[in-house]
């Protein structure tokens, strides 16, 4: 499973795995998008760039998820997909860039699920093992 | 670890985990044996375990007396939900993002009406449809109020007052809102442009998840004197609305999490969980976050004020009920951080009280309360689920002494959202509630399944525990009639 939702009494845990950090980050974003709205009901008509910076892979994961949540409000759009275009470690921080694909919100057509308030440092995990990367955090619903 | 070995019973409704490891103070839980057992058994992960989270809070610098949890306690992020912790700046006390949460100043407004249950008979569906149409709710909804950044700054500075100035609601609403709906330490200049931009179309929106507007009937009165002061009678219709600071509050939390993480390192504070990042209250970083949170809180006050106006509009549109027949009983929040005076071991101290998923519940005589309620104590609004009762309680002297005047905020979740989704299909829940005479309207399917009554603890039981512990006292029980979800 590229991403998985984990039981949490009040909120929800999101875990993403990938052979490379890029893939785990990408799939984490895809997992977030699928929580908000059924991606099948969203057409990938417009591209929106997103960017996040943080001090380590764990907080980068959280910052990226929060940048995606902000993009929904800032652009008034829902997104079907996310492609990661750039990941870089510069001195003491990490930068990730990517593109969200979606369209303006149309509540008659988009099957809305639930609002995610934010990604948190709760249960935060970023570990590299033989299989690749594993990222995890609690989303505040 | 076997936490059961550490737990000590103080009395029937209060348990304590004495300080161990890096805990500076004990952790205290207002529970009975049954709910303590359930809490210990029903822990999905050690990392988000409510008891562990409470112990972690007890490790923070400057914490006073104890890290406490109310009977509706369940795991959150960093702090447990249902938690309260007070910090003294003189002892290096801190301010923490997790102690407030991302939905800054999320809370409940209760409106009392001049209507009785009979006035609504046969009109419930019409009212539900009108509320669904008039009140923006659910992910992606936008408010009718579209504000510029300058106007957003006024929302952040003036809170509910600004909403009233714009024509939403009435001046007399303000008297019955905690802090009169405006916190003066708010500073819009420390709130990011992104936060303000995200909020431009979200003032006057309900959100989703556990947020709701519910029309209820008073079906039980327990305390005639307090009920009279609160203007409550048997058979009366009241309305509860539950929402917070929307995207602006979420973005403040998002922006300040890495900011406070840096401060945590700078001041050499050891935190047992990364989500507990914090800064000394008196540090420039702590002060800045505090001013941002106050701005977020004002946004929530304004949001609920606009929503209260929309509720009145819906009642007018559906039933021709004039807005003067719908008055604010009280509004109080449950995700807050505030300066308050409390007596600790005979000494009056100015403390910064964090309430995460717990409600201020001041006892009689406090100057913060509206004059009309001062002699009896503060109304404490406890939201149940869409299928069970909600309660109006009142704060007590004992609560002032024991919990910094704090009580529970709701039933408290017992099952995870995923479990609930598997177990409670939305259609079935809607049908079951209809049979009980409760009409539900929701924008997102998930809001019904995940918020199904079975996903929560028994509200009767958690209220009973807090009342038996003497922290609050029952005033009235409310039964749902119409529920609007996001």
Q: What kind of assembly state do the chains in view correspond to?
A: heterodimer
* Overall pLDDT metric of chain A: 96
What is the largest interface, and how many residues per chain?
A-B, 44 and 55 residues
CATH topology of chain B: tRNA-splicing ligase RtcB
- Count of DSSP-assigned helices of chain B: 17
* Architecture per CATH nomenclature, i.e. the level-2 architecture of chain A: 3-Layer(bab) Sandwich
Largest sheet of chain B: 8 strands, mixed
> How many domain modules of chain B?
1
Output the CATH class name of chain A.
Alpha Beta
The overall strand count of chain A is: 8
Binned strand content of chain B: 15-25%
Largest beta sheet of chain A, briefly?
5 strands, antiparallel
Bin the strand percentage of chain A.
35-45%
The named CATH superfamily of chain A: Archease domain
What's the domain count of chain A?
1
Question: Which properties best describe this structure?
Answer:
heterodimer; A: alpha+beta; Archease, Possible Chaperone, Chain: A, domain 1; three-stranded antiparallel sheet; 44% strand; B: 486 residues; tRNA-splicing ligase RtcB; eight-stranded mixed sheet; seven-stranded mixed sheet; 17 helices; 25% strand
Structural account:
The complex is a heterodimer of chains A (141) and B (486). Chain A is an alpha+beta fold. Chain A contains two helices and eight strands, in the order ββαβαβββββ. Chain A has helices at 21-36, 57-75, and strands at residues 3-6, 12-18, 46-54, 77-90, 93-104, 118-119, 125-129, 132-140. In chain A, the strands form two sheets. In chain A, strands 1, 2, 6, 7 and 8 form a five-stranded antiparallel β-sheet that branches. Chain A starts with a strand and ends with a strand. The mean pLDDT of chain A is 96. Chain B has a single domain, classed as tRNA-splicing ligase RtcB (Alpha-Beta Complex), CATH 3.90.1860. Chain B is 34% helix and 25% strand. In chain B, the strands form four sheets. In chain B, strands 7, 8, 9, 11, 15, 16, 18 and 19 form an eight-stranded mixed β-sheet that branches. In chain B, a hairpin with a 2-residue loop joins β1 and β2. In chain B, α4 (124-134) crosses α11, α5 (149-158) crosses α11 and α10 runs antiparallel to α11. The model of chain B has no long low-confidence stretch (mean pLDDT 95). Classes of the chains: A alpha+beta (141), B alpha+beta (486). At the A-B interface, α2 and β6 of A face α8, α10, α14 and α16 of B.
């Amino acid at each position: 499973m590229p991403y998985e939702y984990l039981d949490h009494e009040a909120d929800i845990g999101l875990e993403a795995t990938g052979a490379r950090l890029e893939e785990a980050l990408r799939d984490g974003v895809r997992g977030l998008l699928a929580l908000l709205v059924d991606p099948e009901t969203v057409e990938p008509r417009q591209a929106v760039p997103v960017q996040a910076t943080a001090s380590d892979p764990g907080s980068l994961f959280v910052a990226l998820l929060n940048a995606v949540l902000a993009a929904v409000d800032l652009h008034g759009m829902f997104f079907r997909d996310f492609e990661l275009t750039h990941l870089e470690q510069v001195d003491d921080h990490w930068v990730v860039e990517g593109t969200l694909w979606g369209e303006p919100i149309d509540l008659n057509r988009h099957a809305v699920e639930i609002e995610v308030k934010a990604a948190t440092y709760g249960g935060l995990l970023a570990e590299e093992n033989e299989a690749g990367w594993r990222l995890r955090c609690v989303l505040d619903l | 670890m076997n936490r059961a070995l550490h737990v000590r019973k103080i009395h029937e409704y209060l348990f304590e985990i004495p300080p161990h490891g890096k805990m500076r103070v004990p952790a205290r839980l207002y529970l009975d044996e049954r709910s303590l057992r359930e809490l210990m058994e029903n822990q999905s992960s050690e990392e988000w375990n409510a008891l562990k989270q409470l112990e972690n809070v007890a490790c923070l610098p400057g914490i006073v007396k104890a890290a406490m949890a109310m009977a509706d306690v369940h795991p959150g992020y960093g702090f447990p939900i249902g938690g309260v912790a007070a910090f003294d700046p003189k002892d290096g006390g801190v301010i923490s993002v997790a102690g407030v949460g991302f939905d800054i100043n999320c809370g409940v407004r209760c409106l009392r009406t001049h209507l009785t249950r009979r006035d609504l008979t046969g009109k419930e569906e019409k009212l539900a449809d009108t509320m669904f149409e008039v009140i923006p709710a659910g992910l992606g909804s936008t408010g009718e109020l579209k504000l510029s950044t300058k106007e957003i700054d006024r929302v952040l500075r003036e809170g509910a007052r600004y909403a009233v100035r714009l024509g939403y609601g009435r001046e007399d609403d303000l008297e019955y809102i905690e802090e009169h709906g405006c916190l003066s330490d708010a500073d819009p200049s420390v709130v990011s442009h992104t936060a303000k931009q995200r909020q431009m179309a979200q003032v006057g929106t309900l959100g989703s998840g556990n947020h709701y507007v519910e029309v209820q009937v008073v079906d039980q009165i327990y305390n005639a004197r307090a009920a009279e002061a609160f203007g409550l009678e048997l058979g009366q219709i009241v309305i509860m609305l539950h929402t917070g600071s929307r995207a602006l509050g979420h973005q403040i939390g998002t922006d300040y999490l890495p900011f406070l993480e840096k401060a945590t390192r700078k001041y050499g504070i050891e935190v047992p969980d990364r989500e507990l990042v914090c800064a000394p209250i008196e540090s420039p970083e702590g002060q800045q976050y505090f001013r941002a949170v106050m701005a977020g809180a004002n946004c929530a006050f304004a949001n609920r004020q606009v929503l209260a106006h929309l509720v009145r509009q819906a009642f007018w549109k559906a039933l021709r009920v004039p807005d003067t027949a719908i008055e604010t009983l009280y509004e109080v929040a449950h995700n807050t951080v505030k300066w308050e005076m409390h007596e600790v071991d005979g000494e009056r101290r100015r403390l910064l009280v964090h309430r995460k998923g717990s409600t201020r519940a001041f006892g009689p005589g406090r100057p913060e309360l509206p004059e009309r309620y001062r002699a009896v104590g503060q109304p404490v609004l406890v939201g149940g689920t869409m299928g069970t009762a909600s309660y109006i309680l009142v704060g007590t002297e004992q609560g002032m002494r024991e919990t910094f005047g704090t009580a529970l905020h709701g039933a408290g979740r017992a099952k995870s959202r995923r479990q609930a989704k598997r177990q409670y299909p939305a259609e079935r829940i809607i049908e079951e509630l209809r049979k009980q005479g409760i009409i539900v309207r929701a924008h997102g399917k998930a809001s019904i399944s995940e918020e199904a009554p079975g996903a929560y603890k028994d509200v009767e039981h958690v209220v009973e525990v807090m009342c038996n512990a003497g922290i609050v006292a029952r005033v009235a029980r409310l039964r749902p009639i119409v529920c609007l979800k996001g």
